[in-house]
Amino acid sequence: MKGTRIIVNILWSGILWCIISISCTRSEHRAKTQMDTYMQYYALMIDSISKNPSYVCTETFRQMAATTDSVVYYHYMILLAKAYMFKSETDSARLCMDRAELFCNNAEPSSQINDLYSEVYNMRGNVCIRLGLADSSVVCFEKAFDYRQNGIDKGVLPDICLNLADAFVHTGRYDKGAMWYRKALSYNDSLNVPEEKRFPAYYGLAQVYMELRDFASCDYYYDMAARHYDQMQPFEKHIYLNNRGNSYYFRADYPKALEMFRKSLDLCRSYPDMTFEGHLTEMNMGETFLLMNQTDSASYYLDLCGDFFRSIGHQTALYYLDTQLIELALKENNLPLARKRLAEAVKPDYVEPNMKHIRNRNLQHYFEEAGDFKQAYHYQMENQRIDDSTRNERIKMRTAEIDLKYSQDTTLMKQKIFIQQKENEVLALNQTLYIWMSVCVCILILVIFIYIYSKKQRSLLQMKSQNMIAALRMENIRNRVSPHFIFNILNREMGNYTDEQSDNMRGLVKLMRRNLELTEQLCVTMEEELDFVNTFINLERKALGDNFLLSVNVDPSIDLNKEILPSMMIQIPVENAIKHALLNKEGMRKLWIDITKTAESIRITIRDNGGGYKVNSRNRGTGTGMKVILQTIQLLNANNKKQIDMSITNVKLEDGEIGCEFTVILPEGYDYNLKKII
């Protein structure tokens, strides 16, 4: 035992040292608590932000109202901006970003502020993408990436890389786009991101190869992404379906393109907040039908999306829409309408080469129909120049993409070798620490085992002592007087009484003997309890007189010899009813005992017409009997999930009298065994 005390003292010293060490960082943990709450909330809401952004807005406002930490508060505000983006409420999203950026500008520089800056610029980049400002989005995403590298949460770096890659693709820098998509995959590897969450990089690379007209590589990456289609969020499914439809469009496989666009449109219409995505798909379908010379369908879908893009002023989308409407008028042989639409068409500052090529093709058609073949020839030559330039640019981009891919692979290999070397060094340095930790854990387990074993032994010894004391006390009581000796004398004396007196005395002896037996039993059968109650009532009938009426109703489906209940559960309420309610009552004295059975319980109801329970009545008694019932029920309920339920209420009877009703409900399958409690 002395050795055990020494070990315990050593362990307590170690624990005390740990407590002192941890206390130094307690304030820092306290400061992080609200950020941890935000991260948990963000993880909970991220799946809902695209499906139900209105719900996210409501819940985020509620969280913000309970937040006192300023940095965390503005993180909630950025999440609110994301929800507004999915609701296509760009102005509200911008307002949230402006407030968060103003806070960052006035705050002291820190890793947490860098994370918040990164969130702000990442959101600004997304807004620029929506408005067709690709160059501005690149600047915003680059700032977001730089701030995040100097922040705390590195887990979002893959997402920023994806956004930056998308922005470069929109500007026509496909080599840079491919580089950032691969960098996103590299970060996924280092962060151990599961394979099913990497599909955005796959369909991003597929889009790059689509633009470079490498359709074999394009289909390879789209197939990689399609494996995880069910795990995609709704907006991610839209990106996959819409872009894959575009890949078939560029191959002039219009039926397959329409198949993808239709799936995308059905998806968007399933989510009311995906308005922007739905109208974008409608515009793609309109052009596809136009190329298939199905002008009615083309007109239908272009009309559906036109008002929306005009309302938000999306210049790129309006340029694309005007291009299709000009061609639609030409295909409908309505040259004046085509001329009108050409004059009213928007003129954005920047137009992607693909869209300019489509516009030139339609203008060539327009001037051919107008008889101005010189202008038609001009646009034909302009498109030829764009084709040559695009072809050359694609070759350059393809070469640059291969070069960047090779450089990335080489750098990644060097990084993996370096990381492996450092891991081996750390493993060698920590081997001794692991051994000592294992020894300490074993010692701790041994001490805990000794402590639990000693405690259990003490408990057993204490229980044995208590049982022995109880047995000695009972033996002492038995030695003082034997109740059976008294019963034998009473039985001898009854030979001198008349028959009626003898019957009453026998009932009394039976009642006393049974009462003694019941005090030694916690539970009895209903048959035994009812027999005792009948004996008691028969002894009291003379005092109750001829006006006493007893009604006992027992459900025929109840087997009285098998059903168990706590002893005195019926006796005490019956005794109380007779003693405190019926003995001194004028007129008819009625007592009802009803025992009914349901699928889940047995209900026992004892009711009298003695005027009801009165708290201040002189006949209300000491309450000892009810205390016995309550304590018995509490003792048994502690061992059961299902609980015995008891109630005492005053009720109005059919003849207008007031009575007291005692009800107890015994659950089916109730355990009356007290061994578990002991």
Strand content: 5-15%
As laid out across the biggest beta sheet, the strand order is 2-4-5-7-6
Number of helices: 24
Radius of gyration: 44 Å
Largest sheet: 5 strands, mixed
Query: Could you say which overall geometry the principal axes of the C-alpha atoms support?
Result: elongated
Structure description:
The protein is elongated and about 145 Å long. The two termini are 30 Å apart. It has 678 residues and is α+β, with helices and mostly antiparallel strands. The strands form 2 sheets. A 5-stranded mixed beta sheet has the order 2-4-5-7-6, covered by helices on one side. The protein has a two-stranded antiparallel ribbon with strand order 1-3. Helix 4 runs antiparallel to helix 5 and helix 14 packs parallel to helix 16. The protein contains 24 helices and 7 strands. 71% of the residues lie in helices and 7% in strands.
Detail the topology: elements first, then pairings.
Blueprint: H1 2-23, H2 26-45, H3 53-65, H4 70-86, H5 90-106, H6 111-130, H7 134-149, H8 157-170, H9 174-190, H10 199-211, H11 215-226, H12 234-250, H13 254-270, H14 275-291, H15 295-312, H16 315-331, H17 335-344, H18 353-370, H19 373-480, H20 483-493, H21 499-519, E1 523-525, H22 526-544, E2 548-554, E3 564-566, H23 571-582, E4 589-597, E5 601-608, H24 624-637, E6 645-652, E7 658-667
Parallel strand pairs: 2-4
Antiparallel strand pairs: 1-3, 4-5, 5-7, 6-7
Helix pairs in contact: 1-19, 2-4, 3-4, 4-5, 4-6, 5-6, 6-7, 6-8, 7-8, 8-9, 8-10, 9-10, 9-19, 10-11, 10-12, 12-13, 12-14, 13-14, 14-15, 14-16, 15-16, 16-17, 16-18, 18-19, 20-21, 21-22, 22-23
